[in-house]
Amino acid sequence: MAQRKLRKSKGASEQDGQEEEPKKDAFEKSDPLITFKAGDEEQKTTTTMNTLDYDYMNEEYDLIYNPLKIQGNKEVEEEVEVEIQYYNKVGKNDIIGVVNIDVQWIKNFEKEQQLNAEQEEELRKQKEREFKAKQEDVEKIAEEKRRFAEEERIRKEALDALYIKGVVKCT
Predict the structure, then answer these.
(1) Is the pLDDT at 129 greater than 60, yes or no?
(2) Whether the Cβ atoms of residue 46 and residue 35 lie closer than 8 Å to each other
(3) Interval 40-60: pLDDT, tens
(4) Domains (ranges, CATH) in the chain?
(5) Which regions of 28-132 does DSSP assign to beta strands (E)?
(6) Torsion angle defined by CA atoms of residues 107, 12, 63 and 86, in that order, rounded to the nearest 10 degrees
(7) Can you tell me the distance from the alpha carbon of 164 to that of 171, in angstroms, rounded to the nearest whole number?
(8) CA dist., res. 120 & res. 126, Å (int)
(9) Model pTM?
């Protein structure tokens, strides 16, 4: 099995409905730090000082791990752990919260997005084919009108010629 690459993209905090983090100290704001873990791989955000609602808009992280390295634990293989911590300058950081995200859900979402893109492309091509077919029909109708008009002109000229010929004979 190939390695998997998971990405926390720019602006995900906005999309994921990030809310203000709880205050951990009575006298100061928390200094949030987020850790992403997948298998043996781990990535940390920057520590934001004195804020409750930092927006990680310009941060991007790649988690690359090989599920074969963690064969024994199926749960770890299929989850990404996101841990929010309160950064302490001295001592161990305090954990504010932890959530595990099912990697299968991410893979299914990516597949769904790919299918949607393919369906949109197929729909675009179908509309293009229909447009070309209608355009060809319009061109055929226009050509038929031109042909009919030309035949009508020739018929009128023939009738006029017969009339003139008859008039000329009579006079």
Answers:
(1) yes
(2) no
(3) 788 888 877 777 666 777 788
(4) 4-102 (2.60.40.150)
(5) 32-38, 41-44, 61-65, 79-86, 94-102
(6) -130
(7) 11
(8) 10
(9) 0.45
